[in-house]
Amino acid sequence: MGEHSLVEVANLHRRFGDVHAVHGLNFNLRRGEVLGFLGPNGAGKTTTMQIICGVLAPSEGAVRIGGIDLLDEPIAAKRQLGYLPEQPPLYRELTVDEYLCYCAKLHGLRKQAAANAMEEAKARCGLQSNGARLIGNLSKGYQQRVGIAQAILHRPAVVVLDEPTVGLDPIQIREIRDLMRELGNDHGVILSTHILPEVQAVCDRVQILHEGRLVLDEDLAELSKSQRSRSIRVKFRRPPSRTSLTKLAGVKRVEALDADTLRLHHADDEALAERIVAASVAGDWGLYELVSESRSLEEIFVELTFGEGQHGSANNPRATS
Amino acid sequence: MSIVHITARELRSLFLSPLSWAVLAITQAFVAYAFLVKLELFLQLKPYLPGLPGAPGLTAIVVAPAFKAAGMVMLLAAPLVTMRLISEERRNGTLSLLMSAPISMADIVLGKFFGIMSFFGIVALVVLLTPLSLLAGGTLDYGLLASGFIGLLLLIASFAAAGLFMSTLTAHPPVAAVSTFGLLLLLWNVDWAGTGAAEGVRPLFSYLATTSHFNALLQGVVDSADLIYYVLFVVTFLVLATRRLDTMRLGH
Q1: Distance, in angstroms, between B104 CA and closest chain A CA?
Q2: Same domain for A165 and A268?
Q3: What is the pLDDT of residues B80-115, one digit of tens each?
Q4: Chain A residues with CB-CB distance to B under 8 A?
Q5: Domain encompassing residue A186
Q6: What is the pLDDT of residues B132-153, one digit of tens each?
Q7: Longest dimension (CA), chain A
Q8: Residue of chain A nearest B99, judged by CA positions
């Protein structure tokens, strides 16, 4: 897909014995995009990331980084990669400076370039005052920062972060999220997480993995559009006739949930709630509850990864596979 | 270039570990003991030696056994040092750093090998200091000293290569250590099988044993066959280690 694709993954499969961990993945990462990987445990997120970074070989399929095939020319392809595994790859017996210097040199940076890169990475990850400390003595959060610093050190075109905010305190999480958004301006970022709000806060695009398959791949802007309220749930003491409700401007369909609860489907009409209240007062329907229903990312996630959802099964992975 | 950085990091980590210092100290202590025992022997024999035709000199009586003792300590100590080369990186997850870096698997293996050899080289140099102390009161046969030292270095290099390969096989350093020790002990004594065997088989077992080549070098016999044996030994295990790292990405 064109020159703007930083990562192209085509028909990726990975088997561990009988377990089919990754099942025919296809996706692209564009420059300047932050891609969020979501999925329950064992969905294949980490495996996919390991394959993209060349730590695991795929059973089938191809990965191209910046147009270079990872299997044919691993060294050239890996030059453009920064990777933070689930467990940060740290040497506990080294100091932060020694470690980052080693990482810079592994990526072929010369002395001066390495020194500059280290300063920049430390500043971005808030490690300026910890350069001389032993990594083994740092707290979990700081170790995570060193891991992130290592991944962005050589300014790679693609940064792959496996659960980057694990073990961080809320303030650090905010800083790291800002950092990821900043990285997303001129790099491509792939991150995996369990934390759904994180995806909404940071990502441009979200992919939900379930049992090794992609069950959702959508721009977050699109997703939030589809998440907007499309129905209102109302409860009346004295429910009016259905026709009087359908006559309200904007109501497309009325669905009775039980004796006094109704769901009004509408077409993205924010003023409808106001009109319902006004009509209720005028007609003395005794409105006592009005909930604007919207699908959260969490609902979508649960629906896609736990089979039967209440919103139909068009996107149900078991139905499509 | 990246080989150099891996070597440097390996050496630095080795010296940050108490185990390496313990290996240095214990090797030195055992070699000193062997050295003193043989020196005592030499002093007892000294009055009779001038009368014997082709009598062994100071170097043959004292230095060769000291090097042999160093070889024996390394048989035990080398597995303990090499065990963590790859297995610990696997365990700590730092192998991902190396595997996602723009370097080849051969670079990793060579960097590790040179790193451990730098340390073992230091061990051997410290061992060499003991015989050199004899220069204070006598002269040494430098040819014999050099061939013995080369023999010790080659022996240690073969231990390092075997240990490095064993370390790629498991994520548990102690398992790597025990396996390496088993392999090295077998190769140390494999010529036992030759003693009772048929005439044709004997040279084969004798050739396979690390000791036969080491002993020849300790006696001052520098035969290219012995040197080639060690080179083949090292290259074989390094190639196996590289292959193993490659296949590690393929399956579980």
Answers
A1: 7
A2: no
A3: 999 999 999 999 999 999 999 999 999 999 999 999
A4: 16-17, 50, 53-57, 74-76, 78-79, 81, 83, 85-94, 98, 102-103, 105-108, 150
A5: 5-80+156-225
A6: 988 888 888 899 999 999 999 9
A7: 80
A8: A55
